[in-house]
Amino acid sequence: MEQKLEKKCNVHDLKLGKRYCLTSLPEFKFILKVIEVHTYYVRFQYFDGLIGIAEIRPDSDFSCYEMPYTPLEQELL
Length: 77
Hints:
Radius of gyration: 12 Å
Structural class: mainly beta
Order of helices and strands: EEEEEEH
């Protein structure tokens, strides 16, 4: 059974190079890696390599979950 992600993050908590998931369950189609953070937008890369940009205001209620690398992924990096 999949483990739920616990650490919820807001827009101002997003860190460059970290992975996040848009849902509390770690589904690969909702995993993204932050590659650029600005005041009003975030540039990210999905798990499959697709790059996107989202306009996110600092006062928005956007939230996601921190998605740490698994031990196997850490070994491969």
